[in-house]
Amino acid sequence: MKITKISKAVKTAGRYNVFVDEKYSFSLDEAQLVKLGLKKGDEVSDEQLANLKTESDFGKNYLRALDLISRRLRSEREIRDYAWRKKWAPENLERVVERLYQYNYLDDEKFARAFVASRSQRNISLRKLKVDLQKKGISNTILEKVLSENETFDEKEALKRLIEKKRGHYDDKRKLVAYLARQGFAYDDIRELIEV
Fold first, then answer.
1. 72-121, pLDDT tens digit by residue?
2. Which of 17, 67, 106, 107 has its CA 20 to 30 A from that of 116?
3. 32: Cβ–Cβ under 8 A, 6 or more apart, which residues?
4. Which residues lie closer than 8 Å to 26 by C-beta, 6 or more apart?
5. pLDDT, tens digit, for every residue of 125-153?
6. How far apart are CA 128 and CA 133, in angstroms?
7. CA 6 to CA 114: how far, in whole Å?
8. Which of these CATH numbers, 3.30.70.1400, 3.20.20.60, 1.10.10.10, 1.10.8.80, describes 3-102?
């Protein structure tokens, strides 16, 4: 088998389509193409072709992970969950995660800090904040460290704001209390701020 053509991909900037025996076979990004030293006329075996296709998949997976992280920080679990949904090959996933850590694009502690900072401006309970972070795969060690360092999160203030926001939506105080309890606020704090 022979590489008969290498051309720029039309839809994805920075990627190149590689044709083997006049048929499209796989694509690589520019860095992969240079690293592998592929050029028109190179002979490839079945084994080499399979390895090149695996490398192509890795490149696509890595770019997708970078795209996700460029929109907002992600936890390792979020990347792994995304990869599972998209059916990435396990070996590619491990390579992607390793490279993201290598370039400091993936850092659960940094993610947790940013998450807490963004949520501290919302009307959210500490309990709900912890549950949300645990769902994102943040360990209890990191969770406790980040929450103990954060000085901007004030649960009672969040509860006050939420009561003011929702008071008009509930004609029955018991329903408002039940709503606030479902949001993770402590019943004693709710009772203190609402005259039941």
1. 999 999 999 999 999 999 999 999 999 999 999 999 999 999 888 888 77
2. 67
3. 55, 56, 59
4. 17, 18, 52, 53, 56
5. 888 888 999 999 999 999 989 888 877 67
6. 9
7. 42
8. 1.10.10.10
Residue 104 one-letter amino acid: N
CB 54 within 8 A of CB 83: no
Q: Extract the tokens encoding 107.
A: 């850092």
Pair of tokens at residue 131:
């549950």
Among 20-29, 34-43, 136-145, top mean pLDDT goes to 136-145
Query: Tokens for 188?
Result: 């004693």
Helix, strand, coil fractions of the chain, as percent rounded to 5? 60, 10, 30
Residue 44, CA atoms < 13 Å, CB-side half-sphere: 23
CB 133 within 8 A of CB 143: yes
d(CA 26, CA 49): 9
Write the DSSP assignment of 108-122 as a string of letters: HHHHHHHHHHHHTTS
pTM, to two decimals:
0.77
Winning range, highest mean pLDDT, from 64-73, 113-122, 151-160, 176-185: 64-73
